[in-house]
Amino acid sequence: MNSYCDKWNLNPLKLPQHIGIVMDGNGRWATKRVLPRISGHHKGVERVQEITELCGNLGIEALTLFAFSEENWCRPEEEVYGIMGLLRWYIRKEHKRIVEKNVQFRVIGNRIKLSKDIVELIENLEKDTKNNTGMHLCIALSYGAQGEILRAVKKIVKKVQQEELKPNDINEKIFEQSLDTNGLPPLDMFIRTSGEYRVSNFLLWQIAYAELFFDNILWPDFDSEKMVELLHMYSLRERRFGRTSEQIAEKSFNMTLG
């Protein structure tokens, strides 16, 4: 039994394998306190560290955090510059700890617009953690789900053109193998903070059967207690995947007997 699950009164059998979070509200958090917007992003990074550690301790298999969308490049240059500086600081500061915590680190998204030094920091941490066996920490950076899907389509088209793949062989599994999230468990739980009720081009394919949670709390205020509260709510949901409640109950009963 996981001692952290005991501490938070969570049933490890009813926890999601993969959680995706849209970390929204950093700028509004700062504005409410008459602070520069970048101050909210600084506070948001602290929450990233806290929630990542919590999920790892609870035995969550994968955590995907939406850090910066492709559309966010349109934000004021000063804010973008500050966010990129925070990213550099975070990777340098957390590199050793992430490696030692047995975390598998990955960045998904379009790296073309990222500066060369940031790409190098990312690639070094990915390389140093590729053989780790703990939780997957996936950062969505310069990411958009529509772009991800287009990249997957182009990969598959190229394989067909090179006769590595026949059109009739293309199925959901083949498609998922071409996505940025290849190798991660199916997305079970989607969380968005700040009171916005949009998925904002985040994991559109993966979200198909995820449980959706929208909360008014701003990301810099999203602490372990709030995360656990949502995990308790998740554990109460009935996930049917097209089946009836009776079929789910029968399956659970058979698993208990078996």
For the record, give the distance between the C-alpha atoms at the N and C termini, rounded to a whole number: 20 Å
Sketch the major β-sheet.
Answer: 6 strands, parallel
Order of strands across the biggest sheet?
3-4-2-1-5-6
Q: Can you tell me the residue ranges where pLDDT is under 50 for at least 5 consecutive residues? A: none
By oligomeric state, this entry counts as: single chain
Q: Per the principal axes of the C-alpha atoms, what is the gross shape?
A: globular
**Rg computed from alpha carbons, rounded to a whole number of angstroms:** 19 Å
Question: What is the strand and helix layout of this fold?
Answer:
Blueprint: H1 3-8, E1 18-22, H2 26-32, H3 37-58, E2 62-69, H4 77-100, E3 104-108, H5 116-129, E4 136-143, H6 145-161, H7 172-177, E5 189-192, E6 211-214, H8 224-235, H9 245-257
Parallel strand pairs: 1-2, 1-5, 2-4, 3-4, 5-6
